[in-house]
Amino acid sequence: MLSSRRAYFLSKLVRYSFTFLLILSLNFALPRMMPGDPIVNLLGEEALHNDPRMIERLRAEHGLDRPLHIQYIGYLRSLARMDLGYSIHKNLSVAELMENSLLWTLLLVFPSVVIGSILALLFGSLAGFKNNSRTDFLLTALALLFYTCPPFLLAMLILSIFAFHLGLFPLGNLTSGGRLGLDYVLDVAWHLFLPVAALSLLGASYKFLVVRNSVTQIFDEQFIVAARAKGLTERCILLRHVIRNVLPPFISMVALSFGFMVSGALVVEIVFSLNGMGTLIYDAVVARDYPIMQGSFLVLTIFVLAANFAADMLYGVADPRIGGPH
Amino acid sequence: MNREFLLLSTALVLLNLIGTGWAAENGGSDGDRIPMLKVGTINQINEANPWDYYFGVYSMIFSHQGLVRFNNEGDIVPELATSWETDDLQKWTFHLREDANWHDGQPVTANDIKFSIDYNLEKDPLSKSYIGSIDSVEAPDKKTAIINLKKPDYNFLNTIAVVKMIPEHIFQSVDEPKKYNDKNAAIGCGPYKFVSFDRDAGIVTYQANENYWGAIPAIDAIELRMFKNPDALMLAFQKGEIDLPYYYSKGISYYYVPKLLENDDIGIEVYPERGITNVLWFNTAIAPFDNKELRQAFSYAVNYEELKNMFTAGYGTVPSAGWVPNGTLYYIETRSLTQDINKSRALLDSLDFKDIDGDGLREMPDKAKFQPKLLTRSDLPDSVRAAEMLKKYFAEVGIDMQIDLADKSTHGQIMDEKKTHEVSLAGTTFWGMTMGEGYGSGYTDTRNYGWSMVSDPKYQSMVDDLGMTQDKDKRKDLAAEIQNYYAEEMPQFTIYSMNIIQPYNALYAGWEYNPLHGILSYGTLSNLHKA
Amino acid sequence: MEMARDFLAHSRLQLIGLFILILFLAVAIFAPLIAPHDPEESKTPYQPPNQEHRLGTNDIGQDILSELIYASRVSLTIGFLAGLISVLIGATLGMLAGYYRGIVEEMVMATGDVVLLIPGLPLMIILAAYLSPSMWNIVLVVGLLWWCSTARVVHSRVLQLREMPFVEAARALGGGDLYIIFHHILINSKEVIYAKFALAVASAMLTEASLSFLGLGDPLNISWGEMIHFAFSRGGFANDMWWWYLPPGLMICACVLGFVLIAMDPERSQKAQEL
Predict the structure, then answer these.
(1) Domains with residue ranges and CATH for chain B
(2) Any long-range contacts for C125-128 (C-beta under 8 Å, 24+ apart)?
(3) Do C119 and A214 touch (CB under 8 A)?
(4) Closest-CA residue in chain B for A288?
(5) Where exactly are the structural domains of chain A?
(6) Three-class SS state of B172
(7) Of the candidates B201, B232, B407, which has its C-beta nearest A175's C-beta?
(8) Environment class of A142 (CB within 10 Å of its CB; exposed 0-12, middle 13-18, buried 19+)
(9) Which of A174, A190, A284, C89 is the most exposed place for a label (fewest CB within 10 A)?
């Protein structure tokens, strides 16, 4: 029993290590593959405005004249030192720049994933349970609307209605500034309410559709019929069988959705003027600040990867089929 | 020569004395004082470091000063220097004011001036593009600074006006200023002191400097709030969350005006633009754009009236061929630019640009396809739209213009360094027009930024003469000559220019406009009061 | 004929989806006949809806309704091409992996896993920043990133099929690999591929809209996303000109809905899991 579970974890570990390496390589290859001067692709357009001596120094530092595999080893080495490069444009190391932004993006993404998942699970089960009822139709239509709506449009409409026309929430930014303690926490929560709501709806819409279908499907399956025959009440059926059978695939879906949620967070941050990874990447794109672009991309991807890894581990624990006797 | 300059500086000292009296006159009762002015902007400050581009800009507005300053008319007036003289336009002697102190209480000395310039030249490679003409700086005593130039430059005061002075005692031990994000890095000697930068809230706070050499400003504290997009900024302004939407060297877009007019608490003022909103530049160094008749043919194809209506609503002006905007010293009337399709076609025909293959589009004299590329910034929707309109106008006379989109930095790199553009769209600023020897020569002359790559000896000698001539009548003649040159040769021409629309909180009065710093002028900072 | 029968066999939702898409396709194809004005022609800008211009005019005086109609061509082209590229790559790799197994399978599936995990928008933003803003670059970028879920589904379908008696029979009869792949496996995976294609198009359209909104689109080929971009950046939003930014938004919604509905199959709900 133990061995099969260990085998599962081990195979996942190998898979993820491989993926991790591929992503690092992709990040290495991108600036070197793209058209244009690699030194500019690596350091940003600003590099050219600088001292020619500095450019030469940087060129040597990045070893762009050396063979690729040597460059690659150097690249991995600096990553091991948590060195993600230096933004000439912003006069800061990329790691320093990302410290704050990453924190805020996580603060936006995590609650949204949790809230969105809970919403999806609740309403999805409800809709699946009451398959083909009016409730089901309404919820599904709503979910489809959110799913098909471009994320930025949804965010802009929410901002316009709740922040501007109704004046219930601030028009942007993370805090009002100059607050401390509980006051600060409440202020941040107030500022993050609309962005989290927008992102939660985006995430929930798609998960809802999946949960609804799974529940509907499970209802038709044999064991529910059997359970009914045993005289269990409907609520009991829902709790014991359905949720338990929907949960494991749901966890892996939530994990896979992290990438999608991060993408959504970028757009939401830009609409709500939040200083997260999204605005960081956006500003970097406008200024052609390639080190920030690559660093942010790498960190976001690693974050998504870690979330998936965690979910897979959780899955291994949660799914009764894994680790059971063969 | 010398006497004229001494006279000028005496006049300026007098002017300055009047100037320093401002707060005493206008302070009024304390009930009128404004405890906090909230300024909203989309300019993004990344670090409270004077070498951060936008923090530098706002430092110059609030906390830092230069030797001289532009007044509301765009003329040079004393600031840290109370007077100056030069005999040969090459050696400039500045006499510093006695009562200027840094925010930490240390006096501002000539050593600080010398240090600031040397330090900039040493640490910031970009500074060479505007103060590279400085050969050396001397500080013979505490209150005298002498700047020696590599060659005579009449226009030097305009250049030195934007060089902000920094305290030597803070920076002498700082090796990498761009990484020095200490609070001390923001110490200046201006009317406001930097207090804090809250990155998460996007707020920079300034506080009135009670030890300012002028007088305590009329606003106790200033909060600068950063927004990521102009719409959010304008919505916040309409809600009363901010008192003033501010863009450095720009006004707001005219399409925000109707909504603002509905709001009684909002006032709107329109100021003349001293830069040019959108200019079509030719790279005159490459064929076939080295031909002035071809450039003229382009200029006759454009419907200026329609562009003016479309991009400026009622806030624009019809451009003139002399290019230099009205309001510039010694501006002369030149021909107004108008659309003349027939003239444009006739010019193209005479140059042997004819449609050979019958597709309605002209070929070059050597029978090759004529598809000039119009370099346009992709991040400016106004420019993209203007480029679309231009493409239509040029198609009407048979020119198959191709729009070549580039982001801000690529566009800048091509125009400033690579010079691989054929035709390009870009605007100019008030200070930019005074670059080089003024009259836009910084943009035009190959020896400077040279967006239109003019190296015509006739033009360059005019520019050189402007640099060496002090006599007013002669300068007036030269200014006229250079404007006539633009009107005839058309190395670049304005496609539309729009006045600055500046809305503000109407509950406050005393707003004043300055061509360099806009509504955040010293006039506003010292006069603003409750209406 | 066969296709028609296939579709009739499908659910009502799919028929609705199909109806929506045929409508959009018709609008795109017959744009010059339907559009009341030349979308390039400039009149007075910022007109509210009126008799002459049912949806008003935009910032440079173009008729918004006509622009909307013509933009369907760009949006659908981007969506279709990107979807096509992603499905071609995905189906080919999926089939190869499923049919040949071994190292090929390992490589394809591992790469697919990676691409599936990568947060799509950040990577596309970066690629779009390196390449110049053009419609074709967006097609390429979206197409190259959306193939992996197709590859996954096709792969598992092929795994099922390759053990089927008729495939084994074909192999026993000496059918070449290519023959088997094309004549048996491809034909029998087509439903999965159709569904994946529809979803890829939907995703491509949404992604294109987001890229355009961020100013990384192609402003010279006006798509619905690009229309919203200009409405937002040239005062449409600030002035509540909903007739300018809402219609293209609704077009995107409806069009994406059409594609999603087509891909929905109540009989095989596991497909939905891979939306």
Answers:
(1) 276-498 (3.10.105.10)
(2) C125/A266, C125/A281, C125/A282, C125/A285, C125/A293, C125/C211, C125/C214, C125/C216, C126/A30, C126/A281, C126/A285, C126/A293, C126/A294, C126/A297, C127/A30, C128/A285, C128/C211, C128/C216
(3) no
(4) B409
(5) 2-80, 99-318
(6) coil
(7) B201
(8) middle
(9) A190
Query: Is the omega angle on the peptide bond into residue B288 within 30 degrees of 0, that is, cis?
Result: yes
Does residue C216 form part of some domain? Answer: yes
Contact B392 C40 (CB under 8 A): yes
Contact B13, B78 (CB under 8 A): yes
Residue B471 — φ and ψ, nearest 5°? -65, 125
Residue of chain B with shortest Cα separation from A278: B228
Instruction: Provide the greatest CA pair distance for chain A.
Output: 83
Distance from CA of C86 to the nearest CA of B (A): 27
**How many other C-beta atoms are found inside a 10 Å radius of the C-beta of residue B374?**
22
Look at residues A242, A254, A256, A234 and name the one whose alpha carbon lies nearest to residue A213: A242
* A229 vs C114: which has the higher pLDDT: C114
Q: Enumerate the residues of chain C whose CB falls inside 8 A of the CB of residue B309.
A: 45
Structure-token match 């990568």, residue found: C118
How many Cβ atoms sit within 10 Å of the Cβ of residue C182?
12
Pairing of strands B203-208, B192-198: antiparallel
User: C22 CB near a chain B CB, below 8 Å?
Assistant: no
- Would you state the structure tokens that stand for residue B165, as one six-digit string? 């002075």
Give a yes or no: residue C2 inside a domain.
Answer: no
ipTM value: 0.81
Q: Is the dihedral of CA A27, A30, A33, A39 positive or negative?
A: negative
Q: Quick one: how far is CA C70 from the chain centroid?
A: 18
Distance CA C19, CA A203 (A): 28
pLDDT over 90 at B464, yes or no: yes
Cβ atoms of C129 and A293 within 8 Å: the answer is yes
Chain C residues lying within 8 Å of A36, measured CB to CB? 130
d(CA C266, CA C274) in angstroms, rounded, equals 14
Classified by CATH at the fold level, domain A99-318 comes out as MetI-like fold (1.10.3720)
Other C-beta atoms closer than 10 Å to the C-beta of B15 total 14
| Residues of C in Cβ contact (< 8 Å) with B389 | 42, 60
Of the partner residues B178, B200, B235, the one whose CB lies closest to the CB of residue A175: B200
Task: Say yes or no for a CB contact (<8 Å) between A262 and C118.
Answer: no
Q: Among the residues of chain A, which ranges form H helices?
A: 2-33, 38-43, 46-49, 52-62, 68-80, 94-129, 134-148, 151-158, 181-220, 222-229, 234-237, 244-271, 277-286, 290-318
Report the chain A residue with the minimal C-alpha distance to residue B179: A91
User: Using the beta-carbon criterion (under 8 Å), do C114 and A19 form an inter-chain contact?
Assistant: yes
B408 interface with C at CB cutoff 8 Å? no
Total domains, chain C: 1
User: Does B197 reach chain A within 8 Å, measured CB to CB?
Assistant: no
Q: Is C82 among the domain residues?
A: yes
Q: Which residues of B touch C41 (CB under 8 A)?
A: none
Answer yes or no: do A23 and C114 touch at CB < 8 A: yes
pLDDT tens digits, one per residue of C3-27: 555 555 557 788 899 999 999 999 9
Q: Write out pLDDT tens, residues B12-55.
A: 444 444 444 344 444 444 567 899 999 999 888 888 988 888 89
- Name subunits touching A (3+ CB pairs < 8 A): B, C
**CB under 8 Å to B396, separation ≥6 — which residues?**
B301, B341
Of A45, A100, A178, the CB nearest to B199: A100
Judging contacts by C-beta atoms under 8 Å, the chain A residues touching residue C209 are: 150, 152-153
User: C57: which strand partners?
Assistant: C63
Query: What residues make up the domain containing C140?
Result: 78-242
Render pLDDT for B247-264 as a digit per residue (tens, 0 to 9).
887 889 888 998 899 999
Beta strands B316-317 and B219-226, pairing class:
unpaired
Check CB contact of B51 with chain A, cutoff 8 Å.
yes
For A36, the 3-state DSSP assignment is: coil
